[in-house]
Amino acid sequence: MTINRQLLAAALATAMLLPGTVVMAAPAAGDVMLAVGQAWVDDNGQKRPLERGTQLKAGQKIITGSGGHVHVKMKDGSLLAVRPNSVLDIEVFEYDAANPGAGKIRYALKNGVVRSVTGAIGEANKGAFRLNTPIAAIGIRGTDFVTFASDATTRASVKSGAIVVSAFSESCKVESFGACWDKTVDLAASTDSYVELNRKDNTPKLLKGNLPLPADSTVLPVSGDIASVLQENKASSLQKVTPLPDSGPGTEGVHWGRWQNDANGMNGLPVTALLADGKSIHIATSIFGLGLTKKVDRLPDRWKANFSLTGGAAYIQANGQYTAADLISGTLGIDLGSSSFTANAIVNDGTIAHHLQAAGTADWRGYLVADPTKSNTSFTGIVHANQNTVGSIFEKPIDDGRQLTGTMVWNR
């Protein structure tokens, strides 16, 4: 009997629309462990904000904007860290805990930076894993690696294990799995080498030096140790956090910590301790992570508000040493009618009063992101659900290689 495939496909599509038809949802592929800044999931064109605890599945895309970081623990124990201004497509994720060697993983990094740490599927069957970029295929050998991709360039480095980077060709198809063996470069774990492939010459090359990455992509590194809450500076012990009060000047619903476990001269606990205590981190720099007890879901249209600086912590960073500085005063204005904000503050390092000025975009999700062409300070903020409190993080280079950095709490 001859089967008309077009009629069969039409019949199946019609059946899915009939009352009582059960359509099986795709199984979960991974869980978001950390979502910071501008981060979304795109599901067949439907884009929604990503939050800690969100389950992801094959067919979805992780999208990050400025300051956006997403850390995901996949169901096979593998880890992903998607860094700012990136798009990662979870094309295929098939996993059976009873038979991990039969599983398959294929990611497509459309642009940006991702770090991937192998889990059960890659350990059991290295030929079942593939990371594609617009111009390259990357296979693994039980690996922790970082990849940068644009439409014209792919770069990758290895922290442990090894990778095989190949140009696409007749023998290296986009839809395949595992490593290719035509126009390839193998790279084992190295501190001073990386692979680069350019669309122009279509041949991967092994280059000396550290992997060149966008300036904002090195924040929030991922570790293979999930107990360290997906960051490299592992806390030797996760002590119970004494939370900041949820009411009162300067601290209403805002908490922050440092990514480094041991920052000489800096008070407070590491971010790992906050996360272990169930707190969320919503914005971050390379030094601080800051979160709210509850972030706003959606600000009212054309919402406007003015705030005063009421608390936080400031430091001068020089040669790995942190020295406390004083937050003196500041004002913050937000205008959703023009999707903008302005902030001004004075910080005293004991001898000099530093004037911080930031201006940039404000969106309906409550995120504030400074425009470097309008600011002398890197500034990111987040509005609390009470709409009366804003938490922010700032960094400002000063002189002789020093940097002013810290957190601010604003109230009205």
Automatic annotation (TrEMBL):
The keyword Signal applies. InterPro entries: FecR. The keyword Signal applies. Keywords: Signal. Residues 1-25 form the signal peptide. Residues 61-163 form the FecR protein domain. Transmembrane segments: none annotated. This is FecR protein domain-containing protein. It comes from Vogesella fluminis. The lineage of its organism: Bacteria, Pseudomonadati, Pseudomonadota, Betaproteobacteria, Neisseriales.
